[in-house]
Amino acid sequence: MRRTKFLMLGAAAIALPRAARAQNDADPSRNSPRQALRVLLGRGAATPAPAGTFDFEGRLYRGTFEQTEDGQIVNVVDLEQYLYSVVPREMPPSWPLAALQAQAICARTYVLQRSDPRRSYDLVPSEIDQRYDGIAAEAPSGVAAVDASAGAVLGFGGGYAQIAYSSCCGGHTESSAEAWGNVPISYLGGVVCTSCADSPNFRWERTLGFDVIAQRFSAASPGPLRVDDLKITARDASGRARAFEVATDLGSTTVGGSAFRRGVGTRVLPSLLLNDLRRTPDGGGVAIAGGGLGHGVGLCQWGARGLAAGGADAAAILALYFPGTVLQHLG
After folding, report:
1. Residue 19 reports pLDDT greater than 60
2. How far is CA 165 from CA 102, 130, 303, 313, in A?
């Protein structure tokens, strides 16, 4: 999500020079006037199926497949048909159409920004890139959102905008520079969001035991570790914790916010937007009150839902979360 390239995929660009192509007249890389992309499905058995589809490990996919030299299966699929599966996986298909359209535009832009013909595949079908489960994941509302927004992307400075999204920002989206330590991006600097309060993760409480923290971070210790206290020592403009002080029997150490969250588990600590952190009455850990789910950068999906329910269209939703970008259509 951090690279910007203006690349158009096509038949010449997507060919896998080291792969054996499955023979199929519906190959989108050869016969589709639109962009096609390559999704690395992994190892397993793939066989052609009727109507321009194929079966991979009991699941149907649109398009065709390549088999790489090391035996992995790569799905070659029309970009819009790929989005049919992605949108309902990344956002509940029961949500308002405008929110689904905003998700489709984000997902499409992410693909085009991420794709690189110099690599043997463009994306993986998981949260590392975007969730993609083939035809079984499709829903009529997702298809309608993709079709209604066909070819629409977010642009910036003559290229594609860098896209990020997460479930719920908790009231303020995060700066990409703060979240990932990269160069500041003007349209990913963080904005106030007043529309995600319906999320079940808008506000939450957790208890985190010192023994759990010690267990998760013991690998970096020269010996057995006992954690005695935890404090937030730095916050960024959004209010998220950017550094923690972990007091142990071996001394105190500072741990970056993102590293701490990964260490204890992203479900244990849903986000770094921590409103309160205090020692539990028994002294064995900390009680945490926080808000949001995910890194918080870019589109707040629950915020998009709230805005759409209030009458905002996809363009207005994207203008809030990516200020300064331009909604444009592929030629």
Report:
1. no
2. 11, 10, 11, 18
